[in-house]
Amino acid sequence: MKSLCIKGGKPLCGTVKISGAKNAALPILASVILSRGTSVIHNVPRLSDVNIIIKILHALGVDIYRREDEALVCTVKNESCCTPPCELVQKMRASICVMGPLLAKRQKAKIAFPGGCVIGERPIDLHLKGMQYLGAHVETKDSHVELTSEFLCGAKMFLGSEFGSTVLGTANVMMAASLAEGTTVIENAAREPEVEELAKFLNQMGAKISGLGTNVLTIQGVAELHGTEYRIISDRIEAGTFIIAAAMTRGRIELQNVSPLHLACVITTLKRIGVTIVEYFDRIVVEGNNSYSPTQVCTKPYPGFPTDLQAQLASMLAIVLGKSCITEKIYPQRFAYVNELVKMGASIEQKGASVYIQGGKTLKGATVFASDLRASAALVLAGLVAIGETTIKHIHHLERGYENLQAKLSLLGADIMYK
Ligand code: EPU
Predict the structure, then answer these.
(1) What pLDDT is stored for residue 372 in this prediction?
(2) Deepest in the core among 53, 128, 129, 327, taking most CB within 10 A?
(3) Which residues does UniProt mark as catalytic (predicted)?
(4) Which of ligand 1's atoms lies nearest the C-alpha of 307?
(5) How many Cβ atoms from other residues are within 10 Å of residue 3's Cβ?
(6) 377 lines ligand 1 (CB under 6 A)
């Protein structure tokens, strides 16, 4: 198994091009199941999660290939299969987003439960509730769930749990409702840019969705969706990770192909800590320095501070002198990185859904284990500023969500290599 080896202490300088958004690409690719004809999708990152959804779509009769210009060309060729392969579904929780399209287009979806996850409980009850509102019959078995419906009917629903809205739940219902008869209203819909992006893609395929970017989505069902050509937004979490990398290493990075608007809360938080950030239309320039202040942050659904940057921010606050606190409101157990940062010399204590950070410690290189995608990123950031050599094991998690991270960091001057 590959490891990443980082020799810390180099300030990152230069420009980096941010890749397409993983969490927009996955549901958009799944939504192709709903359509007839060919769709051409640009800016889809080369990631292992994307490879998994492509394999699932192949198994479900969708022909997909990467053109020379990197665009993915997708055409539904065979609509007979309603059961995505269990071994692939269990590799990635986002595979649940084929459920809505299969149910709406093929009247049936039999899908394995994606199983537990290191970032905490990730139930799919809201997805199922949404499908039931649309008229689906849902049968839950030990290892899988089976949904059937002769035809789906628009409905008004509230989609939410104690943790707020659901991103993929909203996506699943929106996709199914696009081909339902009549009008669906989703209240408390997720407002994440990736959900808005899916709605834009569906509308380009002929769907009638309004309320984009708000928490009330209205979907007027249509009889058919057609193929389209689309360019996916850039990955705000990858961008946020590079902003933190520049800040932590006291370097200067220009991020290209970004949407500063999608990072408003992250940028405000980092400016409050003391990082210099200048925003342009589709570029961000970040300059680190030596005088940062501790802070208190609470993760929230968009437009709040994203849970997907919580671990990376903790890594930064570990080196910022003073007491900081981060409270995780979306996944209260998403702290698997804490022990690994502590091994590197950080002083972080987890109590319930919060971590208390006594910052300003000098991090030292160590052998640490990545437990999930964003935890891996937090360890890479720590390695970039640690004294000596850090070896990160189980680095395959990183490849789920960061395209060419090692190469991009090397170009910015980091001493980072696969071993
Ligand atoms: N929830 C329920 N029931 C449900 C669905 C969700 O109780 O049926 C709860 C979850 O347990 C969680 C909260 O609601 O506490 C929010 O979960 P959500 O459904 O929004 O998460 P998701 O759609 O499964 C997406 C991203 C995650 C990101 C979350 C939150 C994709 C592929 N995944 O997951 O991204 O953390 O939204 O923003 O879009 C990542 O990229 O590293 C990642 C984990």
Answers:
(1) 93
(2) 53
(3) 117
(4) 36
(5) 17
(6) no
Predicted pLDDT at 122: 79
Which residues of the chain are in CATH 3.65.10.10 domains?
4-19+234-418, 22-231
For the Cβ of 50 lying below 6 angstroms from any atom of ligand 1, the answer is no
Q: Residue 412 CB: number of other CB atoms within 10 A? A: 23
Q: Which residue has the tokens 């992250």?
A: 266
Does domain 22-231 fall under CATH 3.90.190.20? My reply is no
**Distance between Cα 124 and ligand 1 center (Å):** 9
Query: Which residue has its alpha carbon closest to ligand 1 atom 2?
Result: 123
Report the distance separating Cα 61 and Cα 42, nearest Å. 21
Q: Which of 254, 192, 272 is nearest to 27 (CA)?
A: 192
Burial of 102 (0-12, 13-18, 19+ CB in 10 A): buried
> Which tokens is 1 given?
């198994």
Residue 93 labelled as part of a binding site: yes
- In the reported structure, the alpha carbon of residue 329 is separated from the centroid of ligand 1 by a whole-number distance in angstroms of 11
Give pLDDT, residue 15. Answer: 98
Q: Mean pLDDT in each 10-residue stretch from start to end of the chain (419 residues)?
A: 95 98 98 97 97 98 97 98 96 95 98 75 91 97 93 96 94 98 98 98 98 98 98 98 98 98 98 98 97 97 98 98 97 95 98 97 97 96 98 94 98 97
One of 13, 97, 117, 298 is an active-site residue; which one?
A: 117
**Would you call 74 a catalytic residue per the annotation?**
no
Residue 17, classed as helix, strand or coil, is strand
CA distance 267 to 221: 38
pTM of the prediction?
0.97
265: Cβ–Cβ under 8 A, 6 or more apart, which residues? 303, 304, 305, 306
> Token digits for 66?
């990467």
* Ligand 1 touching residue 124 (CB < 6 A): yes
Residue 333 CA to ligand 1 center (angstroms) comes to: 13
Q: How far is the CA of 121 from the centre of ligand 1 (A)?
A: 10
pLDDT value at residue 336:
95
Nearest atom in ligand 1 to 306's CA: 38
